[in-house]
Design a protein that fits this description.
This protein is α+β, with helices and mostly antiparallel strands. The protein has a single domain, classed as Alpha-Beta Plaits, CATH 3.30.70.1290. Helices cover about 35% and strands about 20% of the residues. It has 4 helices and 6 strands. A 4-stranded antiparallel β-sheet has the order 4-5-3-6, sandwiched between helices. A hairpin with a 2-residue loop joins strand 4 and strand 5. Helix 1 crosses helix 2. It is globular. This is IS200/IS605 family transposase. It comes from Nonomuraea zeae. InterPro entries: Transposase_17 (IPR002686), Transposase_17_sf (IPR036515). One of its GO terms (molecular function) is transposase activity. One of its GO terms (biological process) is DNA transposition.
Amino acid sequence: MSPRWEPNPDIRRGRSVVYSLHAHLVFTPKYRRKVFTDEILSRCEEIMIEVCDSFGATLVEFNGEHDHVHLLVHYPPKVALSTLVNSLKGVSARLLRKEFPVHIRRYLWGGHFWSPSYFAASCGGAPLEIIKEYIENQKRPD
């Protein structure tokens, strides 16, 4: 009797494609200001989940510290990573400024929230569990 084949949840199928695309992203606020509280990080994660969903992507893991956030995103090949990043940063900046105006204004001014640069790494080579564990362990105890 042959072992039962179990589908790999990281491999997705489209009409004409089978894919498993993951990116590790790191965003920092403008001037690397320490703007994030636990409440703001939590809301930022919710926003990022919604944005990913709108692109057909999945936010696999999210974590952050006072001055940056880490994301592990599983995204479809029809989505340009730069387009996804611009939407993640744009929507989150707009909503976080609107929902936490007093706190954010103490750290950031001039209509900016995120630094224009970001880190992106393909996660095809490393086992995803290792990347997830790395992101989970980024938050240092205060």
